[in-house]
Amino acid sequence: MTTPVVSALDPLIVIERRAASGARLVERFREAGFAARLEKSLTEAARGSTVVWMLPASDRYRDWLPTLRSHAGRVRLLTVGREFRVGLQVELLLAGAAGYVDQNDGWSGAIETMIKAARAVMAGGRWFSSEVMSASIDALRDPARKPAVGAAFDSLSPRELQIARHVALGESNKQIAAALNLAECTVKTHLQNVFAKINVNNRVTLALYATRNADRV
Asked: Which residues make beta-bridge pairs with 100?
């Protein structure tokens, strides 16, 4: 695959509330050939620019998600977080973000991924996993199902709700089994029941709806 050419005329804006960390990010992006600079908020980013936004904690997403939605059509947004649940990553895509990079691998690994992702986003592409893209398509294809999905969570048993919570965290059946002291085959059976009750066919879509219905899960 050919690496997109980054033009020095295309601005790359880094939004990072911690000045020292932001300055270090800008330095690394400049070393990689970007015309990068640090800004304090999205409102300071020029229309059409590519923005790398170091997001606040995932448990505060209701505070910053509306801001992301309001600016997504004005700039190209590459979001960066730490251990965001897969359902929340789908929300980022549906809100208009062009990509998501996780810092779970440490700063040095994350910055290399950010550089690759920024090139892709600047060239008009997206940087999400295939499962997140697929779940987003499913959610857009059937918007009328959303209210019914929310109510369906009320029909889950306490154990099924536990399973749904762990799936929303991106855990595998094996990890869920260990956390809940269950056999892996038992987790699989519970998960199949959850899929049937919520009317979804994969764990990523379940994670999305679990995130949207956090008050029920």
From this structure: 79
